[in-house]
Amino acid sequence: MDIGIGLPGHAPWTEGRTLVDWARRAEERGFSTLAVSDRLVWTTPEPLITLAAAAGATSRIRLLTSVLLAPLRANHALFAKAVTTLDQLAGPDRLRLGLAPGLRDDDFTEGGVDYATRGRQFDRLLDRLAGVSLGEDPVGPRAATEGGVPLLFGGHSEAAIRRIVTRGTGWIAGDATVEGVREFAPGLAKAWADAGRPGSPRLVATVMFALGPNARQAVSAAIEPYYAFAGEEYATYGASAALTTPEQITTAVAGFAEIGVDELIFAGNDPDPGQVDLLADTIGL
């Protein structure tokens, strides 16, 4: 199982260059992937721009949006151009897109995008991205990665499964638990096989973490405000579910590996770049 790390974009960071430092350290320590999340109504950095900076600061580590709220990109041609440009700058086989329709209506209100039709807009965006990626569209450049940038889709809905088996390479699970992945994966595997897809869908799970003497305070400061939209109970649960000890980290690695997850992403909650080294030391990188 590959082990990646996610930038603490939702946490109270103040210096953008700190995120670039995370990227360099993540590559130096041998993480498989650098991931970045997405929200509009928050201080989360724009994911494609952030990954472009990371691509310029690194040369090998894979780059992942985890997840990008696709329907907010109302100009589909411009979005496709941004993706393929990033793929060209990063070099082939580094960029992957984790995509989802989004749940928080305030992002759509502030973005001037209709929340109710976001699923249909999502599918139209995917059509345009495919054409640009393969050089079948007047917009360019085409993707550097053969066949286009691999797509992972988040969510549990029938629409999410449809997108995975018809357009994607796999599923990305946010705030994942071993039990949740174990429950969802068999149905996805069946749908994949029923669609005539060879092999099996890639399974990527993401979990929240912070390490060190102030880890519990860091996750509370990062997660509770971020999830406040869902109510105090959910925000408190989200913070309590974060992994904050070496024992919790190693248990998660063993548990997700046992059920066949292909990649586990640890999303940071403390902006200190030293978190990269603490995590690497804990899992033996």
Automatic annotation (TrEMBL):
Annotated Luciferase-like domain residues: 16-238
Which GO molecular-function terms appear in the entry? alkanesulfonate monooxygenase activity
Which UniProt keyword terms apply here? Flavoprotein, FMN, Monooxygenase, Oxidoreductase
**GO BP annotations, alphabetical order:** alkanesulfonate catabolic process
Task: Answer whether the UniProt record assigns the keyword Repeat to this protein.
Answer: no
Full protein name: Alkanesulfonate monooxygenase SsuD/methylene tetrahydromethanopterin reductase-like flavin-dependent oxidoreductase (Luciferase family)
